[in-house]
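Trying the structure run again after the queue cleared.
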Amino acid sequence: MAPSTSREIGHPIRSGGVAGPVVQRHQWIWEVPADIEPAMTPQLDALSAALGSRTEAVRRLGDAADVFIDVVISHFGPTLSLGWTMTREQIDLVAAFGAGLSVDEYDYTEP
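Done. Tokens:
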């Protein structure tokens, strides 16, 4: 499976030659397709569909690497509705991967 992005240790986090922080550990990143809604359930459903058959292989990565699931939730439109909920199945998916979970929430609602 090919990564969406990979970064090598010591390389700048930002591209374009801008000075700043560097990558502290090698990173292999697979991202859900851009057409997936930026919300918890659609992103985890896409992750499960793409990686579910590879659950044991992903779990074994934890022996040599830190495995994280990062979810980005973006809010658009006139009303901001913060918060998210994980189903039991979604919690089981994260646990089956042996992964940590990070959730970022962004407010792009209209002023």
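The radius of gyration is 16 Å. Worth checking whether this holds up in the mutant runs.
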